[in-house]
Amino acid sequence: MSAEPRRTRGATPRELPPGAEPDDHIFVDSVVKSFGDTQVLKGVTMHLKRHKTAVIIGGSGAGKTTLLRLLIALERPTSGHIWVDGHDISPLSEPELNVVRQQFGMVFQYAALLDSLTVFDNVAFPLREHRKQMKRREMRDKVLSMLSLLGLEGKENRMPSELSGGQRKRVGLARALMLEPEILIYDEPTSGLDPITSRMVDDLIEETRARFDVTSVVISHDMTSTFRIAHQAFLLVQGQVIASGKPDDLAYGSVDAAREFIAASGIAPERINRVDNQAEGERTIKYKAM
Ligand SMILES: Nc1ncnc2c1ncn2[C@@H]1O[C@H](COP(=O)(O)OP(=O)(O)OP(=O)(O)O)[C@@H](O)[C@H]1O
Ligand SMILES: [Mg+2]
């Protein structure tokens, strides 16, 4: 979001880690995660591309949430590495991880707003926690300008219960954007929403990626949404990525289980309008429509 290129730590670009590709923002490198005797992730490798949208799909219990917790450094891999911006975050100390965590914005399922706080205080929350030096005036300006960017002008004094589902999602997104993250993670952003609102949330994810120049990682059960927004899709089955590529590579590729997974959802991929097929200029900002 700032004009200056940002890096995880240090001022000098690093050499690429072995196996990484130049446009990797996050490189998940042979990650194993076990809880006791149970191996939940069994050697996951993923290249999450900078400024693109990656969607991770997979059945219940496949390990999606576990992977997400590793990405945002809430947990450490049992073995393997996670490289963010060319830096291995796996061996970092807790204070160093706290810095890394601030590069990630999380947009939770159902927005996860604090019901007893106003919209303003919900959005200001990360600044009060992590930008303690910030002047009240500056904080106010920052919150109000973000609310305005997301089409929530004048809603700052409302309570979350006084908002529509789509508005709550945008408040959650405003909060996630406050610390200017480079990576936005969405946990099941469309689950429980009607088809029209789901579509708006898809547009919101894409517009946010384009406008704030972030890398998006989305965990989803929603195949229509996956086809709409994913530049890359990863199918996780029993702790392994069994297929990856563009959504069409999964739907029509050589991996039987991937074709079956997508066919089982009943969607018609050819009828879905993909963000990938749109020129940048064609995208209209629809924040205000939600
Ligand atoms: N802290 C933990 N301790 C023990 N087992 C765990 C722990 N966290 C996850 N698991 C196990 O790991 C497996 C994967 O769980 P995970 O929550 O990652 O799946 P998921 O793909 O997110 O599923 P869903 O789509 O239902 O949310 C499950 O079998 C779960 O029981
Ligand atoms: Mg889960």
Structural description of this entry:
By secondary structure, the chain is an alpha/beta fold. The protein is built from 9 helices and 10 strands. The protein binds adenosine-5'-triphosphate (ATP) and magnesium ion.
Beta-strand segment tally: 10
> SS-based structural class?
alpha/beta
Could you name the CATH class of the largest domain? Alpha Beta
Uncertain parts: 1-11, 281-285
- The chain-level mean pLDDT equals 87
What would CATH call the homologous superfamily of the largest domain? Answer: P-loop containing nucleotide triphosphate hydrolases
Number of domains: 2
Distance between the termini: 23 Å
Secondary-structure element sequence?
EEEHEEHEHHHEHEHEEHH
- Rough shape? globular
**Amount of helix:** 25-40%
Number of helices: 9
Outline of the structure:
With 290 residues, this protein is an alpha/beta fold. It has helices at 64-71, 94-101, 119-130, 136-149, 165-177, 195-212, 223-229, 247-252, 256-264; strands at residues 24-35, 38-49, 53-57, 79-84, 87-88, 104-107, 183-187, 215-219, 232-237, 240-245. It contains nine helices and ten strands.
Features:
single chain; 290 residues; alpha/beta; Rossmann fold; 4-stranded antiparallel β-sheet; 9 helices; 22% strand; globular; binds magnesium ion
Would you spell out the secondary-structure blueprint of this structure?
Blueprint: E1 24-35, E2 38-49, E3 53-57, H1 64-71, E4 79-84, E5 87-88, H2 94-101, E6 104-107, H3 119-130, H4 136-149, H5 165-177, E7 183-187, H6 195-212, E8 215-219, H7 223-229, E9 232-237, E10 240-245, H8 247-252, H9 256-264
Parallel strand pairs: 3-8, 3-9, 6-7, 7-8
Antiparallel strand pairs: 1-2, 1-4, 4-5, 9-10
Helix pairs in contact: 3-4, 3-5, 5-6
The structure holds adenosine-5'-triphosphate and magnesium ion.
The site of adenosine-5'-triphosphate has 11 residues, from β2 and α1.
